[in-house]
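Sanity check. The docking grid for flavin-adenine dinucleotide depends on where the pocket ends up, so I'm generating a full predicted complex first rather than guessing from homology. Inputs follow.
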Amino acid sequence: MQVDYLIVGQGICGTFLSYYFLKENKTFIVLDRNEEITPSKISAGIINPVTGRRMVRVWMAEQVLPFAHEAYRDIGQLLGITAISQKSIIDFFPNAHQRQVFLERVEEGEQYLSAYPEQNQFNFFFNYHLGCGEIRHSYIAHLEILLPAWKRRLIENGQFLEESFEMQKLLLNDSFIRYKHITAEKIIFCDGLSSFTNPFFKQLPFAPNKGEALFVEVPGLPKERIYKKGFLLAPLSDENLFWLGSNYQWSFDHPHPTKEFYQQAELHLNAWLKLPFKIVDHKASIRPATLERRPFVGLHPHQKNIGLLNGMGTKGSSLAPFFANQLVKNILYHEEINPLANINRFQKMLSR
Ligand SMILES: Cc1cc2nc3c(=O)[nH]c(=O)nc-3n(C[C@H](O)[C@H](O)[C@H](O)COP(=O)(O)OP(=O)(O)OC[C@H]3O[C@@H](n4cnc5c(N)ncnc54)[C@H](O)[C@@H]3O)c2cc1C
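Predicted complex below; grid placement will be based on this.
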């Protein structure tokens, strides 16, 4: 079989990469081994314009956020699903300092933040003694709907193979690659954590980061917003189901859910939420993060028929559409990839 591109991995990166190739009328096969738990599958899909204790804007917020909104809306239209919803985040201040920081940022004119006028609106649902603010222009990308819908579409079009990629079966030629029965112009890896051991990319400064989440039924809690107080409590598409997370561990012994996280999150929810709730699941996965906290995007500087779209870290929902599009435009029209994301910046490292 002859195609333009072979894409390894159908997480959020492989999904948007194949979407943008489709829009350019390119042919491709997406190969994925259908792991039960992946970061894309357990992510809440939250797109938050501000970050950290200082409530500063996320990297490239002005470009990436509107781009992501449009990208999810368009792919959703193509598939006949709702792939994204705008939902503001209600930020319940966990302490006096955080409250002060938030209100200072509002005074400074930060347009993403507002001192929420209806301070008592959530009294029936939550315990909060220090008030709350609102983070506007936030979104939830419904990855639990989008990823299976895109996979179904690829299967219908004969563009999907469910199997594990085996590096030893990859043959490289100057102008094409061959993998089993597939011949393609290029192979592009969107395989998350697997790239960390890929012989072509393992030199890159990846920095795996583990995160856990609880899946909680909360009958009666309105689903129009995301709630935050230390943890984030985000509505999922199933009735009454919410996602509670997460933690960020740079050092860990195993990839599995831990009793410590479960207990800490349950205790927190007991103190915060006034409504009865039931924990129905607990999952953990490892984010494909990077030391510099910037993605890895582009063609291998010394092997032009191998590419990478990875390193989305904690922000895959917002960064993946933007950089998938940049990679496609780079391959087809030689448009520039943001230098802070382009793997060219590791040219020397990748020549070893
Ligand atoms: C608990 C948690 C919460 C998160 N919450 C958010 C959030 O709210 N917002 C946000 O923006 N980000 C969030 N993230 C981060 C986000 O999930 C990641 O940045 C993103 O999912 C990475 O997507 P990816 O496509 O690069 O990788 P992955 O999701 O890992 O996808 C890789 C795909 O490749 C396939 N694959 C791997 N190896 C092979 C192989 N050898 N052969 C075939 N297939 C293979 C896998 O099956 C998988 O489908 C969260 C992450 C975690 C862990």
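Relevant for the grid: Residues 155 and 161 are 8 Å apart (CA to CA).
Also worth noting: The mean pLDDT is 97.
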